[in-house]
Specification:
Helix content of chain B: over 70%
Radius of gyration of chain B: 22 Å
Radius of gyration of chain A: 17 Å
Strand order of the largest sheet of chain B: 1-2
Helix content of chain A: over 70%
Shape of chain B: globular
Strand content of chain B: under 5%
Order of helices and strands of chain A: HHH
Number of helices of chain B: 12
Largest sheet of chain B: 2 strands, antiparallel
Largest interface: A-B, 7 and 7 residues
Order of helices and strands of chain B: HHHHHHHHEHHHHE
Number of helices of chain A: 3
Strand content of chain A: under 5%
Number of strands of chain B: 2
Largest sheet of chain A: none
Shape of chain A: elongated
Oligomer: heterodimer
């Protein structure tokens, strides 16, 4: 028997997985560095976010839930930082040419 | 339906594909990126095998730290890479290399297949004596109590690796400042991150250290996080690597191995064997080793990533 919580988890994690899939397709298909970054950040922000939200009702303890949210926040911070750095490097290379 | 075998198969295929990529790809940079991804997938394998301690170490040291070192090496080789690729080894060398690699693979596969079933194991003995170490995590107990000699030698090996890296410097620069340079914009995101992230990183490192006694974690993982935070600050130009001749750096570097040795010798007199802990004092002795060892590993890893001395003045 599938409960409401199971449905919620299934929907959220599946939606998150779709964002990861779309991000990967974008990474492979888009023409230049900046558009590829645009595709990737969606996977990190929304994809991981949806997966974390989907898993939240299933955690054993409050600390485990907080850990999951912290992981998401750290990935958000890291992905914002890294895309900014890569974007900057790509722009510098463009100007040099 | 049990999905674990499928997940295992998928991860195994990914792992082999990435390994192939690292070998086949021409550009050093692409190979390093492949190697980092390989390490992350390998840590998933350890998770699937219920070995979270090894997974943590693999992702932190095997993938993250080694990846940074290889990236640095790769960027140094970029100038000569095209020249090197133009002089590809001949067919004979390639065939011999392929045959040797195949022989090693077959040898490893045979060894694994010929292992006795059930495999000889000291695990029950370790588990039965876990209470005597006053630790909850059997992996930590093996690392710091039952096989503490191995861990001590690992710390010494790390020190030797650092001396090896430093030895690449010419005589006149010996004891100078490490080669790491930063190109960060003082108002950029990297500097912001280098100011905001280390406090959080230090908390995570302390947690990993503390968690190690009862659950996955420990001094190597904790030290890697500390070293990563230090590297972030160095890369952003918020701080610079100290000269390799600095007394405080060298003191911190040898502190771990020294304390390890001293505790080991104390064990000879109080508990009858090198690195044995007297009954009831195990936790105290273990903590006395772990704290300085963690600091020493963190400084050694940070200095290793900062590189060999290249300047006599700070960058």
């Amino acid at each position: 028997m599938i409960s409401a919580i199971d449905v919620f988890t299934l929907v959220c994690v599946a939606a998150g997985a779709i964002f990861f899939l779309a991000g990967t397709v974008g990474l492979l298909r888009f023409p230049d560095t900046l558009t590829r970054l645009h595709a990737l950040t969606k996977a990190d922000n929304l994809g991981l976010g949806l997966i974390v939200i989907g898993l939240l009702p299933r955690v054993d303890s409050v600390t485990a839930g907080i850990k999951l949210i912290c992981i998401w926040a750290l990935v958000l911070f890291a992905s914002a930082l890294v895309s900014q750095l890569i974007g900057r490097a790509a722009r510098r290379e463009e100007l040099d040419q | 339906m049990n999905v674990m075998p499928w997940a295992g198969a998928l991860v195994a295929v990914l792992l082999l594909a990435l390994a192939l990529w690292v070998i086949v790809v021409r550009s050093t940079f692409a190979a390093v990126v492949g190697f980092v991804a390989y390490g992350i997938i390998l840590s998933l394998v350890w998770m699937l095998l219920h070995a979270p301690d090894i997974a943590l170490t693999e992702v932190a040291i095997g993938s993250g730290l080694t990846g940074v070192l290889l990236l640095g090496a790769g960027s140094r080789l970029r100038g000569t890479e095209g020249n090197e690729n133009a002089h590809a080894p001949g067919a004979v060398v390639r065939v011999v290399a392929a045959l040797l690699c195949a022989a090693v693979t077959v040898g490893l596969a045979l060894t694994v297949l010929l292992l006795p079933e059930p495999a000889p194991s000291l695990a029950p003995l370790a588990a039965a004596n876990l209470y005597r170490t006053e630790l909850g995590n059997p992996v930590t107990a093996v690392l710091i109590a039952f096989r503490a000699t191995d861990t001590m030698l690992e710390v010494v090996v790390l020190l030797l690796a650092l001396v090896g890296a430093w030895s690449l410097a010419p005589d006149r620069l010996w004891g100078g400042y490490p080669g790491l340079r930063h190109h960060a914009d003082p108002n950029g995101m990297l500097v912001y991150a280098a100011r905001r992230l280390p406090p959080l990183g230090i908390i995570v490192a302390l947690y990993l250290f503390y968690a190690g006694s009862n659950s996955p974690g420990g001094e190597f993982q904790s030290a890697t996080v500390l070293a990563a935070m230090w590297l972030l600050a160095m890369l952003a130009g918020v701080t610079h690597a100290p000269p390799t001749a600095a007394l405080r750096v060298r003191a911190l570097l040898v502190m771990g191995s020294t304390v390890f040795l001293v505790v080991g010798v104390v064990g000879m007199f109080t508990a009858g064997a090198f690195l044995a802990y007297p009954e009831g004092w195990a936790k105290v002795f273990i903590l006395a080793i772990e704290v300085p060892v963690t600091l020493s590993i963190a400084v050694a890893l940070g200095m290793l990533m900062a590189g060999a001395p290249e300047r006599t003045v700070p960058a």
